[in-house]
Structure formats: C-alpha cells, structure tokens
Amino acid sequence: MDTHKEFFEAREHLRWRATLALLAITTGIMLVLGPLSAAMGHSVAALLAGITAGVGALLFLLVMGLPKPLGVHVAGATMGLYTVIAIAMGSIQGHSVHHWAYLFPAQMVFLLRPRRAALAMGGLGLYALLASAHLLSQIEILRFACIYLLLCGLVTTFALAEEQAGLALVRQSDDVRQFEQLLDASLDAIFTLDAEGRVSAWNDSAERILGWTADEMLGQKLSERIIPLRFREAHEARMKSVLASGQSRGSDRVLEMSAVHRDGHEFPVELSLWHVDTPRGPLFGALLRDIGARKETERQLREQETKYRSIVENGTEGILIVGGSRVIYANAFLERCLNRTLEELRGAPFTHFIHPGDVERVVENHRRRLAGEPAEQRYTFRILGADGRVVWVELSAVAIEWEGKAATLSFLGDVTQRHELEEKLLAKTREQEVMLQSTVIGIGLIASRQLRWANSTLEALFGYPPGALQGQPVALLFRSETDFNAVLPSVLATLDAEGRYAGELELRRADSKPIWVQVHGSRMPASDGGITSLWTFVDITERKRAEEELLNALTREREFGQLKSRFVATTSHEFRTPLAGILSSIDLIATYGERLDAQEKDEMFRQIRDAVTRMTRMLDDILLIGRGDAQSIRFTPAATDLTDLCAQIRNEAAQSRPDGEGRPRILLDLADVDGLWHLDAKLLRHLLGNLLSNGLKYSPEGGDVQLRVRVEDEGLRFDVVDQGIGIPEADQKRLFESFHRASNVGNISGTGLGLAIVKQSVELHGGRIEVHSTLGVGTTFTVYIPSRRAA
C-alpha cells in the first residue's frame, strides 16, 4: 500500500512541476514572438513558433519519461504548444480577448491525462488557426469555444474520476494482499477452484501439506493432483451437482477423505468445500487439514480401550463401581466369585453381597469415602456367593465421579486361600511364641534394621515394657549411632558370607546403663529381598565384670612387679650414695680424728646428718606412696594460714639445696590470700615442697623459681614456674607415675616419687594439676584446689 501511495504522490509532484515549466515556456515564447512578428510576417513567425514548441515538447516528454505511447504525447504536446503560438499570434493581431481563456484548461487536461487530451488539444489548435486567419465569424468562434470548454470539462472530469478509481484500486489491492498474508499464515491448506475445478489460489500451508507449489498448481485441476484416483469421479460429480442445484452454499460440509501428496503417499485429510457465485462465474473455496496425527491418536485410543476393556473383563481382580448404595458396574471376576450374573449384580444394593458381620465396617468406609473423610485404604472382609459360599476379599477403593454423581471405584482380590493359610500360620505362630516367650534367652527377629519381634525375655533384659521394642530400630540398643554404624558392616559381611554371626557386644539398656551380651544371629530367607535374621541375646555382664576385675588384678600385679623392680633399682642407687658419704665420713673421723680440727669434724658430721635426712625423706616418700596405693592417707583440712605456710615451704626447699654462686632463688607472689583457708597443711607441704624442690633441682644453669598463688573461682590456683631444662613431650604422659623420670635428667639425682606424691595430694584435695613445658625454656605446674576462707 505504501508503494502505490508513494508512486501517485511522485507522479502528481512531477505533473505540477511540468505545468509550471510549460507556463514558463509559453510566457517566454510570447515575449520573444511579439517583437519577431512585428519585424516579419505573421505566418512565418507562427511557423517558427510551432516548430520550436514541438521540439521543446518532445524534449520535455523525454525528460519526464512517462510510460505512455511516445507518438500520442508528441502529437498532443505539439498541438497544445502550437495553440499557444496561435493565440500569441492572434494577440498580436488584436484577438487576445477571445483566445487566452482556452490556454490553461487545455494544458491541465494534457498534464492529467495526455492520451485523452490529444483530441481536445488538436481541436483547440485547429480553432486557433482558423481564428488567427479570420476564417470564422464571432458567433462561430463563441459556439466553438462553448463546445470546446464542454469537451475540456468532460475530459477533466473523466480524468479525475479515473484517478480516484486508481487510488481505490490500490487500496483494494492492499486489502487483498493483507488477506492473502493471513491465508498464508494459516496452518490449514486454503485454495480456490473455478467451475472446472482448476486451482486459482493456493496458500503456503497448501504447499507445505500437499507438497505442490503455487506455480505448479495454479490453473491445474485439483482432482488430477491431490484426489486419489478411486475418489476423483465422485469428487467431480459432487462439484457438478452443486453447480446444477444453484445453491450458493450447497456443499459447505466437512468431509474426511484421503489426499495424495506430491511424493505419492496418501494421508487422511479433512476437507471443507463451499461455493459462491461471483460476477466472473461460480467459485469454490476449500479448506484442507491434515488429520493424520489425529487419526493415529484415535487409533491408539481405540487399541488402548480394547486392551483395557480386555484387562478389566478378564483380570484376576474384581472391579466394582458403586453409586449411592447400588452397584453401577461389576466385571466378570465378581460374577464368578459371587456365582451371580452381571444382570443380577447391576442395580442391586451392594450390601446384599456382604457378610452380615462385615456390613457395618464396609458401609462406614463407603460413607466416609464419599464424604471426603479419612477411610481405610485397604482392608479385608467377607462376601457371600449365591450358594452361601464365603469368599474373603481384599478391597482398595477411591472416590470418583460417575455421570456427574459421587461414586466409589473398588478393586477386590480373592484372598480366601491366603486368609486360610494366615489363620493356620497364626495358630502355629501362637504355639511357637508361647515356647519362645518361656525361654530364658532373649530372642529377636530383625529385618531392615528394625526389630520386627522381640520376646518378653529380651524386653526385660534391656529394661523395656512389653511390646515397646517391636518396630524399633536396632540402633536403639547400642550406646550410640556411631557404635551401631561401626559394628554393622562386619555383621552384615559375616551374615552374607557364612549365614550366621556370633560375638560379644556392649549395648545399652533403657536406663542408659551398659550391658554386655553374647549374640548369635542366623540369616533367614525374606520375601521382600531384604535381610531378615533371627538373633539370641544372653546377658554376660557379670562375666565381663569378673573378667575385667581379673584383668585389672593381673595389670596391677604386673605394675606392682614393675614398681618393685624400679623401686629396687632406684632405692639401691639413691640409698647407696648417701650411705657411701656416711661411710666415708666415718672412716675419715676414725682414721684422722685426732688430726682434724673442730670445724672439719663439724662439716663431716653435717654431711652425715644431711645423708641421713635425705634417706629419711626417701623412706617417707616411699611410705606415703604405699599408703596412697593402699588408700590409707586421710584428708584432714583445717584452718591454715596460707601466707605463713608458703613462706615455710619456700625456706625448707631453699635449705635443701647447697649454697653456691648461681643458686636459683625462690620468689613468692601471693595476691589476696591473707587469712585462714580450709586446707590440709601436711599434704600441701608435700605438694608444693616437691614442685619447688624439682624446680630448683632441674635448673642447673640457674634462673629463679617462682611460686604464684591466686584466688580463682571457688578455690586457689598455685603456679610453680622454673627456667630449667624442661620435660620432653613423650615423657609428659607418664610424668605422674611412681619411679618414672624424664629421659633428659642425666646425672641429676632423684627417685621419681615426687610428682606421684604431688598428684596424690592434689586428688585428695579434689583438685587437678596441669603441666606446660618447653625443652630448654622451663616448666610450669598449675594446681587448682577447691577451698574457701575460714570464718
């Protein structure tokens, strides 16, 4: 549509430009010919003007390039321009009043429609020549002018009407084009036929569905291309009958038929054909739709329906549809079960076929299901045959809508034999259960990691009430889920490989107390493909306790033997040194007593006393350790001045080391510990004395030893910090064992009893001890003792 509009607008613009150009040429000629005609004869000037105007018009038309016959344009333009010249000549002779009025209408008609204007222009030219030669009278000139003006008006009117018709045709062609685009966008094939059945229009979907292009089908008979040979005669006869009947829409109905594709294969289609009368004769419109997919779906549905009907009618389950309280549908299976015909079943109340003892249950479930309330999804009941035979059936049902009303669809399976077997099995199971419940061994059936059954002995063994273990996960009997997952793989592997398992497990009772049991399991065949096993449980907690006590006794005996060995080795070494000093001093006094002065004798006596004191302290430590192992040490707290006690302990520890240059000092750091505290002063003296003595002893390179005491939480915190040799990490685990010494002590003397005494003293106070040590840097012992100030 836009293309046509642009064409007309361009042509109108061109014609107006041509009009202006022609007026300019005419004015120029008149200006030139005025003086020329005065100097020459009129006829010669007119001839020259006509030739000049004709050549100018020819060149003008060539420039315009209008798609018209060149001869008509040249003739019309020449005659028109000659008319201008003639009028100009007449003007020179004094006749301009009679001829100027004819110039502009003629030019406009020429520019609007050159072909139709040729006759008018020629008449105007002839008239102008006669008028110029004075061959017509004034009356004839007026009459000729009137006729000419009428002719020009008619030609102009016809030209304008044709122009409007052209524009209307363009608009109509645009509408047709839009309609064709809509037809091409249709998914169905759409085409038109003339009275002979030849194709006159063919959309894109027709090409896609039938394989023929529009160029191949236009003008061809439809029946020869797409109608199968066996249907062609009937098709053409139908079209003829429609034409003969004279009814404009006599064939507008949908037909299902076969069509032939271009490649030769046939496929089902749906054809709608209608006919209308047009000014050019009858015309048939057709809409063709490929229904191959729909036909295939219908075929599959029919097959499915046949198959499902066969399944329903010949299945091994009864199918029953109940609407309200009456049977709407029953299949052949129920006919066989009830020994009744389908006619007897349909329409009868469904309760007529139910055992009286089960009617209430079935009716209630049916009512609840129709009301949308929760109902049993699957249950068994009895139905009665016509001969009184009882049939056990299992029912599963759903609520449905049947013909706009609420109904139930039920599936019933004959479980009579299964029910009889279950009854027999139940009776036998009861007998076996009585025997299993009477045994003193716990018995459980495990499947899918759950206790499916447990006898009363097993429940009592683990402290659960009757029935509480049934259905519970086996992991409930273990101390934790982690223990269960750790044991399970080995148990399953053994069951798979050997079919049985035996072992001892530490499990958990209902009160969370541990229980040791001896278990035996045997794998059993399972119908569901899982692992089912039968297990026995025997309580061996007392036996395990006795074994543990015996093992502990053996361990203690072994440790005692090791302790004796370490004691003999340690005491023999530690006692030999002071005894050797005593013996040496005595020998010197006995041999050189008279020669020794009093000071030398006092020094030897002091050495003897120190040696005796050292041995006495070792014996006290050994006795204290022995009393601790025998649990004969008593904890007797009393009001104690902690500040004074710490000062005494520091002095005693300092005196145990000989004086000398580089001797470590003991620094006290007491904060807010004034007053009396509930403590066992004797045990605290052993505790802090050993820690301070060790700090001094294992600081051979010097460095101060610090004792810090702080009040913390509900008690006291003691920190003994030295800058000694440190303790290897490997030795820290056994640091508080009797007679154990670190591997880096070298020749530093010691019995290995000091820290054991410290640990006993801390434990008797109800406290705890921690150690942090770095080799070559030093060691920190931290002791926490619960205590309170004395009132």
Characteristic terms for this protein:
791 residues; alpha+beta; five-stranded antiparallel beta sheet; 22 strands; 21% strand; elongated
Beta-strand content = 15-25%
C-alpha geometry: elongated
Distance between the termini: 116 Å
Please estimate the helix content: 40-55%
Q: Which strands sit side by side, in order, in the main sheet?
A: 2-1-5-4-3
Return the average pLDDT rounded to an integer.
75
- Round the Cα radius of gyration to an integer and report it: 65 Å
Tally the beta strands: 22
Structural class given helices, strands, pairing?
Answer: alpha+beta
Largest sheet: 5 strands, antiparallel
Unreliable stretches (pLDDT < 50, length at least 5) are 40-50, 53-76, 89-120
The number of distinct helices, counting runs of at least 4 residues, comes to 24
Would you write up a description of this structure?
- With 791 residues, the chain is of the alpha+beta class.
- Helices cover 53% and strands 21% of the residues.
- It contains 24 helices and 22 strands.
- Helix 3 (70-92) packs antiparallel against helix 5 and helix 21 runs parallel beside helix 22.
- The chain is elongated, with a radius of gyration of 65 Å.
SSE layout and pairing:
Layout: H1 2-39, H2 42-64, H3 70-92, H4 96-99, H5 103-112, H6 114-132, H7 138-185, E1 189-193, E2 199-202, H8 204-210, H9 214-217, H10 222-225, H11 229-245, E3 253-260, E4 266-278, E5 281-290, H12 292-314, E6 318-323, E7 326-330, H13 332-338, H14 342-345, H15 359-370, E8 378-384, E9 390-402, E10 405-414, H16 416-438, E11 442-447, E12 450-454, H17 456-461, H18 481-498, E13 500-508, E14 514-524, E15 532-539, H19 541-592, H20 598-629, E16 638-641, H21 642-655, E17 666-670, E18 676-679, H22 681-697, E19 705-712, E20 715-721, H23 729-732, H24 754-764, E21 768-774, E22 778-786
Parallel strand pairs: 17-19
Antiparallel strand pairs: 1-2, 1-5, 3-4, 4-5, 6-7, 6-10, 8-9, 9-10, 11-12, 11-15, 13-14, 14-15, 16-18, 19-20, 20-22, 21-22
